[in-house]
Structures are given as structure tokens and as C-alpha cells.
Specification:
single chain; alpha/beta; binds zinc ion
């Protein structure tokens, strides 16, 4: 298919125009016009680019691309090396950030809920990205954290009373620890995100709501992979997911 068709299809699938984001969503670096092989990865790191290009990818799809609002706009250093490699090989980079967190089926949060066996009951927070739902059976924090660690293949940091019963939970993948207070206001037993902040501990202790930092990378491996697989199936493309293990 043509890169422009892929770009337009994704824009409509993920409704990228509806989101206020910190980075451009869509084609960030334009490569060859025709796309047969798509690689996916969480972050457009050098390692992911090297592996995708060695495999012969025409386009790389990521959740964390470039050109973040807070970063230096200059194309120098690490960013120069990454972009130069894409341009040298005529490979496109397509990035989908908040629209991919939010998508009701392929999104990081929808996929995380599914992986953890949580029945989604609603959404909350900025642009309705965060989810709320219930576990199928009540578990203690210690049981739930152990099970979650197994599902994500990464030991979570669980903050709270290990004996506390967990049934109603809220979750938001990645660096969404700033949503913890909004989650507490939803009356949940626990909030799951990727990363913790210093104040997450105090909020957990004073609210009685458990906080689980399950890994930024670990909670965001799901959406981009699901998107790549979905596009491959829909358009007869080849797809491979390139996972660079990341302890954060
Ligand atoms: Zn993220």
C-alpha cells in the first residue's frame, strides 16, 4: 500500500485530529512511497531502528517518536543519528502517542485491561484516556501484584497494604502517575500506571488506595503491537514487533 494511504487510514482509525498531544501524530519522517513491511516498537530508539531496518522494514510504527514539545528542536546528536539512519534507508517513521493510548480496542489501555482480565466499565481523566473497571474476583494487593507481574513479565512496584482487597481498579499506561488523584476520586481500590513519583507513595498512604507502578515500557508494549498486527491483517502487510527490553 502507499504510505499516504497508511497515514490517512491511521489518522481516521485513531482519530488523531481529536487529541491535544505533546508530539506530532502520524508521519514524523517520510520514507519511500510504498509500504509492504511494517515494524513496530514502543520507542524509536537506535536499537529498534537498527533491527527494523535490518529486517527490511519500509515503515516503523512507534508509540514514542520524536519532536516532543519539551525537547530542543535542533536535529543534533542522538536525534540526528536516528533521523539520518531513517533518511539514508528511505524508511518512514510513524508515531502515535495519546491517540494510541486511548483507542477503545487497539489502545494501550484497552489492551492492558484485556491482558489483566479487567472488565472495563468506563473512562476518566484528560481526553478520557484512563480506564476504570473491575477484576473478575477480589484479590489482595499482594496476589494481584504478583499476577500482574507474571502477565507483564516485569515485577511491579506495589505501594499500599498488601492484605488490602482489590476489586475496583483504574489504570492508565505509561507515565500517568499524575492521574492518581483523579483515580482516587473515582473510588477505586487500586490505580495502575507505568511509573511512580515520590508523591505517589504519600497519596497511596493517605488515601488508602493502592498504587501499582507496572512499568512504563511494560504497560506500553501492547498497543503499538496490536496496531501493527491489525494493519498487517487488514492490508496484507508483513509485520514484526521489535521489543527492546527496558527496566523502566
Ligand atoms: Zn509512554
Amino acid at each position: 500500500m502507499l504510505l499516504n494511504e497508511l497515514r490517512d487510514y491511521n489518522a481516521s482509525l485513531l482519530q488523531t485530529g481529536l487529541f491535544k498531544d505533546y508530539c506530532p501524530n502520524g508521519v514524523q519522517v517520510e520514507g519511500r512511497a510504498e509500504v509492504r513491511r511494517i515494524a513496530s516498537g514502543v520507542t524509536a530508539s537506535q536499537q529498534v531502528l537498527d533491527a527494523a531496518i535490518a529486517w527490511g522494514a519500509d515503515a516503523v510504527l512507534v508509540h514514542h517518536g520524536y519532536f516532543w514539545r519539551s525537547e530542543d528542536a535542533a536535529i543534533a546528536g542522538i536525534k540526528k543519528r536516528r533521523i539520518a539512519e531513517l533518511l539514508r534507508h528511505d524508511v518512514s517513521l510513524l508515531a502515535y502517542h495519546l491517540p494510541l493510548d486511548a483507542h477503545p480496542e487497539l489502545g494501550n489501555n484497552a489492551q492492558l485491561g484485556k491482558l489483566l482480565g479487567i472488565v472495563e466499565q468506563g473512562r476518566f481523566g484528560e481526553q478520557n484516556i484512563a480506564c476504570i473497571g473491575e477484576l473478575e474476583t477480589t484479590q489482595t494487593l499482594a496476589q494481584f501484584a504478583a499476577w500482574l507481574g507474571g502477565r507483564l513479565q516485569r515485577a511491579p512496584q506495589a505501594i499500599g497494604d498488601n492484605a488490602k482487597n482489590i476489586r475496583r481498579v483504574a489504570w492508565c499506561s505509561g507515565g500517568a502517575q499524575g492521574y492518581f488523584e483523579a483515580a482516587i476520586a473515582q473510588g477505586v481500590d487500586a490505580f495502575i500506571s507505568g511509573e511512580a513519583s515520590e508523591q505517589s507513595f504519600h497519596l497511596a498512604q493517605e488515601s488508602g488506595v493502592a498504587f501499582i507502578a507496572a512499568g512504563h515500557h511494560a504497560t506500553e508494549r501492547l498497543g503499538i503491537r496490536a496496531l501493527g498486527a491489525y494493519l498487517a491483517e487488514r492490508f496484507g502487510l508483513e509485520h514484526r514487533f521489535f521489543d527492546q527490553d527496558n527496566p523502566v
